[in-house]
Amino acid sequence: MEKDASAPDPSRQCNGFSGVLYGEFTDTLNDGVRYSVSLTESALTIQRISSSPDRTKVVFNLSDCIGCRAYKGPDSADIGAYFAAYFYPFKRRWMSTGVARQRVEQCFRVALVQDPLVNLREAERWAHAIRDASVLVDACVFWGLSPLPIGVTRLRRPCRTMILVNPHSGRGQALQLFTGHIRAMLTEASVPYTLVITEHQNHARELVRNADLTQWDALVIMSGDGLLFEVINGLMEREDWQQAIQTPLGMLPGGSGNALAASIHHYSQ
Ligand SMILES: Nc1ncnc2c1ncn2[C@@H]1O[C@H](COP(=O)(O)OP(=O)(O)OP(=O)(O)O)[C@@H](O)[C@H]1O
User: Would you call 31 a catalytic residue per the annotation?
Assistant: First the structure.
């Protein structure tokens, strides 16, 4: 039997909601706690389903979302599947008036039917839709460079990235910062990357001068100012420098002063 094209998709029309997706899922730790979850083109809205009058909605802006993934739980007897979305909204710092981006993970269990495959497919559909909706947001947000008034580059996804880390930058902490913070974010954002730990002065310059740049969509430098200058010099020394210098560059502060990263961040506000 053919599906009636005019019939409303139940995931789009529920409880008066009309957007991209609507669903009801449970808490990952407690099946008794249920949430209504709705996805529009700009936000993910979560509301706990309960009889109490206090049913506060939590709204996450998709411009703060860096990724979403679907997965099966570790228990093979579990018929449910899961999806987790990763947000980095600005929040007030503890004991401070300033705000900073802070990680928030929103995870749900999908157990609509007894068939685990169907549940996994539904979790994947949600993960896909959340990723797609948040892709519209400039990928530079992830690197803290957005929105730049000039020279903004919308990166393709998946964004194949070469990450250059100077292990001696910032009193030797750049590599630790990478493994402690950045690596997990890259995984959450499904960013495929090649990590290059520089071994000597001018290593990055020589590498970038001779690299096949078609393999990467962006070069990200995690260091102080020095390594970025090396990379720019390497790009400018190429025969195809006019095209090479168009390669999107990102900067993650890993040095001691980080003056350039601070300036870029300032002008991106
Ligand atoms: N493995 C390495 N060993 C020695 N020198 C390196 C290595 N990798 C890069 N360099 C050089 O170190 C210089 C300084 O690096 P960078 O600016 O990244 O760090 P920093 O001096 O700690 O930072 P800041 O500028 O914030 O003080 C760079 O110009 C680069 O040529």
Answer: no
Best residue among 163, 164, 165, 169 to mutate for probing ligand 1, ranked by most atoms within 8 Å of CB = 169
Q: Divide the 269 residues of the chain into consecutive groups of 10 and give the mean pLDDT of each group.
A: 42 56 94 94 93 83 94 94 96 82 95 96 97 68 45 69 94 91 93 96 98 95 93 97 94 89 77
The CATH number of the domain holding residue 229 is: 3.40.50.10330
253 lines ligand 1 (CB under 6 A): no
- 63 shares its domain with 176: no
- Residue 121 and residue 164 in one domain: no
User: What is the spatial distance between Cα 85 and Cα 72, in angstroms, rounded to a whole number?
Assistant: 15
Q: Which of 137, 171, 192 is the last residue of a domain?
A: 137
Instruction: Kindly provide the ipTM of the predicted complex, given to two decimals.
Output: 0.92
Contact partners, residue 135, CB within 8 Å, separation at least 6 = 157
91: phi then psi, degrees, rounded to nearest 5: -135, 155
